[in-house]
Write a structure and sequence with these properties.
Strand order of the largest sheet: 5-6-4-3-7-1-8-13-2-14
Structural class: alpha/beta
CATH superfamily of one domain: Alkaline Phosphatase, subunit A
Order of helices and strands: HEHEHHEHHEHHEEHEHHEEEEEEEH
CATH architecture of one domain: 3-Layer(aba) Sandwich
Largest sheet: 10 strands, mixed
Strand content: 15-25%
Bound molecules: magnesium ion, zinc ion
Length: about 375
């Protein structure tokens, strides 16, 4: 009896409280915020850049980096379909196509069948597209966004695929795969020009001195084979990024997809050369600053920074000091550590957490607001 009357009293008090709260306070419905879509996506890949490379670079740079401007941080699992330790081809294909594949695969699946890339889809949807690298433009990372090949070393076949997708802007090395070929006499530079491209190279003029016409497609080769190391005088990466950020928004007004690769962080790791790693990383960090300055002004751009894998099994040794890194390497190849992902801008919230490398593709597409199924591939 006592219990029942007590319950009734509580119930009555709650009713009074509910009535009074309804009558005296405004009912606040939770704001349903429509997800803000990204008009542009800029994907920055530091090849071979694990957390230790980022740490070493930051400490060697007086404890400062532009990575610290990225509000969202996540982690991806970089393994390939056939090996725990991925290579750059399978790693970039995961970002470009959203599928795990075998090491050596350039935007083909485990059965060597071509699979559509986010850059190709951007073109089909009427966006502009761009690729910038500090390796050959036919090297595994950039190639996986535009070419389809069962094996990464088929550089001339990869170059052929630049004729199949109307990429709007590209800068990188490897001109010989286009114009002094071993397997045939084709001149892909002439073929690209006949398709309306402005094609140039360091043989003719410095990129920094060029005024790039945003109404025409643009390709520029920085070397015949592989570009120099930054510490041996290579300077074009910031210039290429600067040109691309003037070009792409004006080429098509519907948005763009741009991939920028700091290719040689990986090569420094393979060579177990910490100076090479850090100098390439510092240049890459500078480019992140450039991109973020631009994206902050733009307000409609998702910026994603990650790596395909770590290279070298780099460790920062106990005798290291700020601005003076003592390094040790455990391998001259890639290692299997999970890899950090940094995101800024519309759609960036989705990049927190731990996920497969293939999820980066899905999250970029979701940021654009593209439907799940996508275009026919
Ligand atoms: Mg690469
Ligand atoms: Zn590598």
């Amino acid at each position: 009896m006592h219990n029942i009357s007590h319950s009734l009293r509580i119930g009555f008090l709650m009713l009074i409280w509910l009535l009074s709260s309804c009558s005296t306070t405004q009912i606040v419905t939770p704001k349903i915020v429509a997800p803000v879509k990204a008009k542009n996506v800029i994907l920055l890949i530091g090849d071979g850049m694990g957390l230790t490379q980022i740490s070493a670079g930051t400490y060697a740079n007086s404890n400062r980096s532009n990575f610290e401007r990225m509000p969202v941080v996540g982690i991806h699992k970089p393994y390939a379909s056939n090996k725990l330790i991925t290579d750059s081809a399978a790693g970039a294909t995961a970002f470009a196509c959203g599928q795990k594949t075998y090491n050596g695969a350039i935007a083909v699946d485990r059965d060597t069948m071509p699979i559509g890339t986010i850059l190709e889809e951007a073109e089909l949807r009427g966006l502009s597209s761009g690729l910038i690298s500090t390796s050959s433009i036919t090297h595994a990372t950039p190639a996986s966004f535009i070419a389809h090949n069962k094996y990464r070393k088929n550089m001339e076949e990869i170059a052929d695929d630049f004729l199949d997708t109307e990429i709007d802007f590209f800068v990188g090395g490897g001109r010989k795969h286009f114009d002094s070929r071993e397997n045939d006499d084709r001149d892909l530079l002439a073929e690209l020009r006949s398709k309306g491209y402005v094609m140039s190279s360091y043989f003719e003029e410095e990129l920094v001195d060029m005024s790039v016409d945003s109404s025409k497609n643009f390709g520029y080769f920085t070397s015949s084979e592989e570009p120099l190391r930054q510490m041996d005088g290579r300077t074009y990466l910031p210039d290429a990024v600067d040109k691309s950020l003037n070009f792409l928004p004006n080429h098509d007004t519907g948005g763009f997809f741009l991939m920028i690769e700091g290719s040689q962080i990986d090569w420094g790791g393979h060579a177990n050369n910490i100076d090479w790693v850090i100098s390439e990383w510092k240049e890459f960090d500078g480019v992140i600053g450039q991109v973020l300055d631009w994206a902050e002004q733009d307000g409609e751009t998702l910026v994603v920074i990650t790596a395909d894998h770590e290279t070298g099994g780099l460790a920062i040794q106990p005798d290291s000091k700020m601005d003076s890194i003592s390094a040790a390497f455990t391998s001259d190849y890639h290692t299997g550590a999970m890899i950090p992902v940094f995101a800024y801008g519309p759609g960036s919230e989705a990049f927190g957490g731990i996920y497969e490398n293939t999820a980066i593709y899905d999250k970029m597409r979701e940021a654009y607001g593209w439907n799940k199924i996508g275009l026919p591939k």
